[in-house]
Amino acid sequence: MNNMNALEEKSNNDTQNNHKSKILTDEQCNLVQKKLKKFMLGIFICRDGGDVLFSYQIDPSLKIDLISNFIAALSMFGEENVGQIKRIFIEGLDVEMNIISKYDLITVFFFKPNVVKDHLEKEAEILLDRFYLVFKEQIEQGKTNLGIFLKFEEELCLCVLNYLRKLGLYKDEI
Amino acid sequence: MVTIADGRYDLPDELYYSKNQHVFLNLKKKIIGLDQIGYAFLNNPTEISLLVDDEIKAGLPFVAIASEQGVTTLNAPCSGKIEKFNEKALEDMEYDTYANGFIIKLKEISDIAPTLITGEKIESWAINEAKTLLRSNYSFKIIEIGDTAVGKTAIKVRFTDNYFKKDLKTTLGVDFGTKEIKTSYLSTDLLFSGTYRFTARMNVWDAAGQDMYDKIRGIYFKDAKGALICYDINNPLSFNHLDKWVSDLEENLGKVPTLLIGNKSDLERKVSRQEGLNYAIKHGFLFVECSAKTGENVDDMFEKLAIEIFKKEENIE
Q: Which of A12, A47, A69 sits opposite B178 (nearest CB)?
């Protein structure tokens, strides 16, 4: 009986710790969210046909669905007429966009103007690689149930944390 | 007891649940099985096989389940020695996954996986899982085609922004509009009988109808899940050209849920409703007459199309 109580207590403790990310600590999650809010307006990943599969929107005024359709159309037109667009960088607006296309997917990062973007292109590609790796089957099946892709938020946080490490904005405790 | 999804799933709150696997653990009865949401996720399971001899270890695979979706392995929620494995679990599981359809009864439990949840923690997790299961949030790209000046852009604007703009300019290449709709579908499917409520983000791609865009129009069909083919009931020529648009659609997308739309129902009719309906039936399309000017039937027809796409996406009926 004592053994059973101990097991239940262990499970309760584990349960309480389980609502947060299994990989990231609370401190890391908070840091990522804080940094994202400071520098970014949003991120989304869409099919190259335009349908958004995953988005992390910080600025609610961004019309992500319209922008994704526009970028997809631009990408399609480019592919048909002048060659596949692998990367687009738009500067000089109230929002700056970094767009990367790979695996029939497009990922778009929205930044506040004049933010330093060291290593960013590489990190964006890593994020897209990761998304494809995790959801390859669903992507290839053309699934449009966005619930499937929700769990990518944790992977996004990890990618951002790695980016912060490279920029020297986060150091792991030894 | 935690009851979710309009009573469709019950999760006894004295049990422990593996968050990722939907395996439940009854500590008092020492039973491991599949919870009701997990059973629904599997989509018609056909076979369960035990992967271990007489002992399971927390976090390691212990059972393989074959279903329409392929074979899934489940990881054990705890460690312990097996007393009994119910080989006919599937026969009873549909009716009771917690008592009759258990997979394994253990002699003793020695360790619990750290990811298990119970009690008040179950509800928010289960609601989230059920949302995914119940396919509640979709994004559908819709391609809209038809002769120039039949009112494609007006239909799109009426749907997305709910107004009618006279003298719209000719669309160049492609135009977009997006709107989220909430709708429901009453299914009689055995496993999921009941009402599916889902949200669909309808991304409408309004393709230019002029002949000069014939060569590039096809590229914009990519990934579209449904189509609107429009004609003007006041313009018989636009009706006579439907074969061209159907051929364009099939060439670029194959068979997708398609709605044939007779627009401008507020004007004098020169194409009968029966002609439109016959054409739609012949090609297996849905059919609606609408008016972008008055808004008549516009929202309803998008809802109809969303339901058809949803059914195709989820292989329902």
A: A69
CA pair distance B155, B139, nearest whole angstrom? 19
Residue A59 contacts residue A93 (beta carbons within 8 Å): no
- pLDDT one-digit tens code per residue, B35-56: 888 887 776 688 888 899 899 9
- Residue B242 CA, chain-centre distance (Å), reads 29
Residues of A in contact with B18 (CB under 8 A): none
The interface predicted TM-score (ipTM) is 0.74
Low-confidence ranges of chain B (pLDDT < 70): 5-6, 43-44, 68-70, 131-135, 168, 187-196, 316-317
Closest residue on chain A to B130 (Cα)? A147
Instruction: Please name the member of B132, B176, B216 whose beta carbon is closest to the beta carbon of A69.
Output: B176
CB spacing of B219 vs A14 below 8 angstroms: no
**Nearest-angstrom CA–CA distance, B136 and B138:** 7
Distance from CA of B114 to the nearest CA of A (A): 5
Angle at which helices A152-167 and A26-39 pack, to 10 degrees?
80
- Element (DSSP H or E) covering residue B287: strand B286-289
